[in-house]
Structure formats: C-alpha cells, structure tokens
Amino acid sequence: MTDSDNQKEVRIRKPSAWWRKTPIIYSLYILTACHKPAPTPVALPKPSPTPSPTAIATPTATPVAKASATPVAKATATPVVTPDPTAVPTAPSPPPSAFQQGMARIFTASETGFRGFRGKLKRTETGTGPNALFKSRRIYQGAFTFAEATSAELEEVYYRQGRHPVYNYHLYFVTPAMESVQKWDELQQQLESVLKDFIRDRSSRYVSWRRNDKLQTAILLSTSDSPGIVELQIHVAFQSPQW
Fold first, then answer.
1. pTM, two decimal places
2. What's the sign of the alpha-carbon dihedral 231, 237, 241, 243?
3. 81 in a domain, yes or no?
4. Which domain holds residue 24?
5. What is the three-class DSSP state of 188?
6. Are residues 232 and 116 part of one domain?
7. Distance, CA of 98 to CA of 24 (rounded, Å)
8. Most-buried pick from 13, 14, 55, 165 (CB within 10 A)?
9. 8: confidence class by pLDDT, cuts 50, 70, 90
10. pLDDT score for 161
C-alpha cells in the first residue's frame, strides 16, 4: 500500500460478536466494505409547498336575486261631482234678431251723423218768421232700411245761427190702416228689448227713449197724420258738421 493509501482510513464499523464468530462472512464483509464505491447522492424531489389555508380559493356564494314584489297600482276613487241643486243651468243666448242687427247698424252709423246712409238730396228748406222751428234743413234719401220699413230719409237740421247740426234718420212703415196699430205694438216691443239702458217717455201720439250721452241720442216712435204710416226716428246732435 502506498503512503496515500495509508493515509486513507477506511472506517469499518466493528462487527458485532455475531460477525466475529463467522470468519467467512466476516471476510466478505471486509472486502465489500473496502471496494464499495461511495454512494452517489440522489437528488430527492423537493416537496411541493403546501398551499396556505388563505391561498385556497374559497368558493363565493353567488347571490340569489330575490324576487321583488311588483307594486300593484291602487285604484284611485274618482270624485263624483254632485250638482248644486241651487245652480240654474244658463241657456245659451239666442242669436240677435234681424231687428236687433238693424238697430246695431243704426247706432254705429249715428256716430258719424249717418254719413254712410246719406243718399240723393231731395230738398232744402229754410225756416221763416220769428217762431220758425229751425233755421235750415236738408233732406236726403235714406240708403238703409230694415224690419220691413218701406222707405227712409236722412235729415240735417240747424236750429240757430251756430254750426251745431242735428241729424235725424227716419224709417217709415206703411201698412193697411187696420194693421197700423198692430205694427205699432210690434215695433214698440222690439224697441223695448233693445233700448234697455234708455229712459222711456210716453204720450198718446208717440213713445220716446233717450240716453244721456254726448250725442244726446233719442228714439221716437210715432204715427203719421196719414193713416197707415208708422214712423221710427233716431236723433243725434253734434257740435260741428259731420259731412
């Protein structure tokens, strides 16, 4: 054996007493121990890390949608309107009659001295004498009639020296003599329904209505000296001529 071999010590575990008693087996053991190569280290697989309890995914409970109760619309009681027993239903106003429409046109025209109703000049008259009823007047044909009037005239009258004219519009209703009273009554009733804001005066020969306005408007219903003629006159006064 070399010196290097001597330096190597083969550590042989001392056999127990049982090995010493068996020389052959002991010798084989010694040879095997001297020539047996050093065991090659075998890499052992590293144990996989045990997942920590927190790393394990805990199954999350899926929230279950609770069925919500659908609100049911409550029926609202409709209030019942109880009619007022004292309330009197208002009837619609009847349309204006032909007479009312005619008088409305008369009042509108009177604001200009009946200028729109002036027709052809018929005559001119001049008052004479100290007790003359007027200074001068001109009479024109009337261009507007209504309510079965047969004719009309427009009168422009000056009573004094001043230029303060009066305009009178005359409507003539010619009827048989026996029917003139009936026509009078008919016109009087119709005028009463129209002239509600006028002051009424009455005589045996006429019925008149007047109103305290700037034109001194007056209405006169009268009978003529000729039988069978009823006259309706509308009067207005101005501070200056309108034509």
1. 0.62
2. negative
3. no
4. 3-35
5. helix
6. yes
7. 165
8. 165
9. very low
10. 72
